[in-house]
Specification:
Cofactor: [4Fe-4S] cluster
Number of strands: 17
Strand content: 5-15%
Largest sheet: 7 strands, mixed
Pfam families: Radical_SAM
Organism: Marinomonas vulgaris
Number of helices: 24
Structural class: alpha/beta
Strand order of the largest sheet: 2-1-3-4-5-6-7
Number of domains: 3
Helix content: 40-55%
Keywords: Iron, Iron-sulfur, Metal-binding, S-adenosyl-L-methionine
Radius of gyration: 25 Å
CATH class of the largest domain: Alpha Beta
Protein name: Radical SAM protein
Distance between the termini: 60 Å
Length: about 650
Amino acid sequence: MTVLLMTPPMTQLNTPYPATAYLTGFLRSRGYDAVQRDPAIELFLEMMTAPALDIIRQHVEDNFESFEDDELPDAIYTFLAEFDRYRLAVEPVIRFLQSKDPSLALRIISRRFLPEGPAFDIIEQMEAVSGDVLKTAFGTLGVQDQAKYLATLFINDLSSVITQGVDPYFEVSRYGERLAAANPSFDNLYDTLMGEPSFSSEILEQLVEQYLEETQPSVVALTVPFPGNMLGALRIAQTCKAINPELPIVMGGGFVNTELRALKDPRIFEFVDFICLDDGERPFMTLLEFFDGQREIDELVRTYFLAEDEQGEPYVHLNQNTELHDIPQTDVGAPIYDGLPLTEYLSLCEMLNPMHRIWSDGRWNKLTIAHGCYWRKCSFCDVSLDYIDRYDAAGADILVDRIEELIAETGQTGFHFVDEAAPPKALFALANRLIERGVVISWWGNIRFEKTFTPERCQLLADSGCIAVSGGLEVASDRLLKLMKKGVSVEQVARVTKGFSEAGVLVHAYLMYGFPTQTEQESVDALEMVRQMMQEGCFQSAFWHRFAATVHSPIGLNPEEYGITLAERPDILFAENDVDFTDPTGTDHDMLGEGLRKALYNYMHGIGFDQPMSFWFERPVARTTMKKDLIAKAIHHILAID
């Protein structure tokens, strides 16, 4: 029995999404013949060739033939006007971003080789404020990084051309997302799948045909980590069924685990045969045993399939089988990347910020220190779901063994620990073991900014190879942090993040606005807190997220405790996650959000720290009530004690 695992488009371009590598390693450790492919990166690379641009131009000209030049979107106009330069540059740029042709950097930074579409406008906008931003960011010798930044803008322009002129569902990291995300109905996805395939879908079908011919699988398994992967997953399943209607198709992944927990529409089973929830090892192994005649269908674990009622009508059945436990972290084995095109991924530089770029730059081996979250209290989080609620850690020696296995396989010493929040004790144990065993790696991951991360322990993590951490400052308001049960204060976050920065570790802060009962005053004060922390060097990068109430969080389950009223929900047949709500506070979060993002973008480029808060907003807002030296005093107080 050969199992073919695939990640549908689109995820990251710089490194494989780890789900298939995790399952490949686990299945092989249990004696199964598992192979994997990444159609996400291969689809993108097929579209970034000179012959593909010829086809894209033809589609664009057909779709915009009735438009005058001044009516064309900027990206489309530049693409058509500069087509010969795009065609000439596209393949060399891809090779450069794959680190296969570093000498091209000198031509790229000349600003005469690449056509410059609207994505490049950001350079001119920043230069209007702070002078030569490229020289400031990269100096005179940062040739490779500067070229990588310009090449990334070039790729962004081409991606905009495809989205605006050829395939409206194509996005580099969110392919077809709006068709699936929290959509209670399967209608839009189904209609799209029944319609004419798009340009990208046709390429995807050709790739799938090639994979099936190469591997001759007995089973196909698809991971759907995000809403944007669902359309691609179903296109792959559709293609597999057209080639071999008897081939079993299994689906799982983060999007399924979060949003398809109330699935009722039987039409999805026209494409797939089984859908698994939560950690995939046990459900998938049980399915393979069922395919092999070793189990009955009613022994499947957390698996949807199509059944018939007493009248012979089809319905969606979820078989739970709680008698079988999940595979503990000590037994899941090390990920295996065999079968994935590790030399083909692109290292991108999407922003002139050293921390922010880590998500898109470099190829990272992915590992999990512990399953679930050790805290499990935040009111905005899906703490009722297995991926958060079930905490299970592997020991430090097991982790270092897996790290060494991955280095031996991939030749890469960069690691991204993908925990919801890496447990401090396990991190410290891992750091000590890495140092004791002389294992040299560079690693980063997500943490909670707890006081246990003292300056000494931050330095220990840095000595073990920690280059960056991310964590939630969220609303940057002590009242709201207490309401959301975050377990930290603003001043504590300032001290912890400063400790990491002093140890040479880059820090990214997740920020949130629009939390229930949050006022305009609290939003403005939060921005002032962020301004002070970034100016003091506590963290280098951050991102504002608009709060969303989810059905699986404490807020979604008990909205009255947070002063809001949930909107009446439609009958859920497909996806369910975000839910609209009414907050009687009446704050204009849309207006505030624009100003918060604008200010933060400038702060991340070292610009605008001296501007008053009102500068960033479209209309007058409340004056901040925060003292200008609040964060400085908090930091210096703890340093004096230390």
